[in-house]
Amino acid sequence: MNNKLECFSKKEKLSVLNIGAGKLEPLQIDANSKFLVNLDNMYSCDNMSEQGDVEKEHRKWIVSDDWINKKMFCNSDIFEFLNSYLCRFDRIIMYRFLEHIEFVQIPYFLYLLSTTLEIGGIVDVIVPNYKLLGEMLIKERVFGNINFEADNILLTTELLNEPNCPHASIWTLDRAYYFFHLEKRFNIIAYDENFSFDGRNIYLRFVAERVA
Fold first, then answer.
1. What is residue 71's three-state secondary structure?
2. What is the CATH code for 4-128+166-210?
3. Neighbouring C-beta atoms of residue 103, cutoff 10 Å
4. What are phi and psi for residue 156, nearest 5 degrees?
5. Are 106 and 169 in contact (CB under 8 A)?
6. Do residues 5 and 77 make contact, with C-beta atoms less than 8 angstroms apart?
7. Taking the CA of residue 177 as centre, how many other CA atoms within 13 Å lie in the half-sphere pointing to its CB?
8. pTM of the model
């Protein structure tokens, strides 16, 4: 990764949408005034806000100089959220989420991302790098390999995931460039093809800036 993301993260006032957040916090954010929306369908009612309430608080935060940090949780459907949310974010985070979007929906999903992001804003993505996973399969030894069980869990999880939440699109750096540059709305400005995350080093991390 280059330092363009690090420079961006030092912006004094930063609005962030964390998609498929679960319990994961965004990386490399050091903002004095941050509005963070964690979006995931796993959140329970006791810590969840409706989308309309999130947007109301977002509008207050935009015009206020007194708010330091605000964190909200919402479990709206991601397509409905992006399609109807009227405020724009400075950054959108997607860690281990994009691979769950069906490949036929990718162009429309990226369009929705662009409409929810400020010009000059960025999308920070972490996905399984299928090139690394493919290399693992090619080099795999099943018999006589004492690490086979652990490797099999990693490969099966990252290639397929659970049946109730399958992986539905394949990502490599070339594919990221293809899809994010296709409609000329984004430009990839940084990447790491061997990114370690959550104890595994088979991830691709890339950062795309909205340019149109």
1. strand
2. 3.40.50.150
3. 13
4. -65, -40
5. yes
6. no
7. 8
8. 0.92
Residue 210 burial class via C-beta count within 10 angstroms: exposed 0-12, middle 13-18, buried 19 and up: buried
CA distance 169 to 100: 6
Six-digit token pair at 20? 């498929």
The answer to whether 87 and 57 have CB atoms below 8 angstroms apart is no
For residue 207, give the 3-state DSSP assignment. Answer: strand
Q: Which residue intervals of the chain are DSSP H helices? A: 4-8, 51-63, 78-84, 106-115, 130-139, 148-159, 173-181
Q: Which residues pair with 67 in a beta bridge?
A: none
User: Amino acid identity, residue 80?
Assistant: E
Q: Where are the domains of the chain?
A: 4-128+166-210
pLDDT digits (tens), the chain, 212 positions: 655 556 555 667 899 999 998 888 899 887 778 999 999 987 777 778 999 999 999 999 999 887 789 999 999 999 999 999 999 999 999 999 999 999 999 999 999 999 999 999 999 999 999 999 999 999 888 898 878 898 899 999 999 998 989 999 999 999 999 999 999 999 999 999 999 999 999 999 999 999 99
Contacts 24+ apart (CB under 8 A), 34-38: 34/69, 34/70, 35/61, 35/67, 35/69, 35/70, 36/69, 36/70, 36/71, 36/72, 37/72, 37/73, 37/74, 37/89, 38/71, 38/72, 38/73, 38/74
Give the 3-state secondary structure of residue 108: helix
